[in-house]
Amino acid sequence: VFPSLAQAQASVANEVYQELGQPSIFLFCPTEYCSSLCSPSPSQSCYLQTIGQELLPGIAVIWTGPKVVSQELSAELLEEVEAVLRRRPVIWDNLYANDYDCRRVFLGPYMGRAPGLMSRLHGLLLNPNCELQANFIPIHTLGTWFQSELGSCAHPDRAGTWHPALPCSSLGDSQGAQDGSYSPQEALELALRDWVAEINQQASEPGK
User: How far is it, in rounded angstroms, from Cα 23 to Cα 129?
Assistant: First the structure.
C-alpha cells in the first residue's frame, strides 16, 4: 500500500493523532531513533527525511542521541536532527537505564549534556534505573540541571518556545542553578544531602 516504511508510519501516526483530536502531547518514536541507527547519517537518512516531511507538525519525535544509551549530547547533533525532522526532538534519555544489565545501578549525577541544550529540545524524558529507590540522585540532579538550563525560569508552550514563569528562588537554593551554570559535582552533593535527610526521616517513622 505504501512506497516506504516511513510513509506508512507517518500515515498511521497522522490518522491516530487526528482521530484523538490533535492532543497537545503526542509522541512518535521513529525506527531510526538515534544516530547509530541512521544510514548513513541523520541528515542524509531517507527514512528521517520522509518522517520530517510527512509527519504532522504537532506530533513530537523521540530521539535518544548518538546511541541508544548516549553518554554525551551536543548542540550540533540536535541542530542536525531538528533540521531533518523539521521540529525539535524530544530526548528519551537512557543515561541511567539499566534494564539491559540489571547487575549494574547508575547513581552518578546527570552529566554529559552540553550547556544550552534546552533551546534545542521540545522535551526530555528520563529512562531510570529499574530499582525505584536508586533513582533519587538521577532525578534530583536532573532537576538541578533543568533549573540551571531555564536560567530565567521559563516553561515551554505547545510550539516548544520558552517563556518566563517562576522566580528562580522558588525552585531551590542552589547558587549554581540560579546563576545559569551547572556543576555535576555540586548537583551530586546537593542530591546526597537531600537523600540522607530523606533516609533519616523514613528511618525515624514508626514501624520503619
Answer: 29
Task: Please report the domains of the chain, with CATH numbers, ordered by start residue.
Answer: 5-99+112-132 (3.20.20.80)
Closest by Cα among 139, 151, 140 to 181: 151
Question: How far are the Cα atoms of 61, 194, 202, 205 from residue 208, in angstroms, in the given order?
Answer: 44, 19, 7, 6
CB count, 10 Å around CB of 38?
Answer: 21
pLDDT tens digits for 58-96? Answer: 999 999 999 999 999 999 999 999 999 999 999 999 999
Task: Flag the least confident range among 50-59, 116-125, 188-197.
Answer: 116-125
CA separation for the pair 88, 207 (Å, rounded): 48
Say what the pLDDT of residue 74 is. 94
Is the N-terminal amide bond of 167 cis, ω within 30° of 0? no
Percent over 70 (pLDDT), the chain: 86
Radius of gyration of the chain, Cα coordinates, nearest whole angstrom: 19
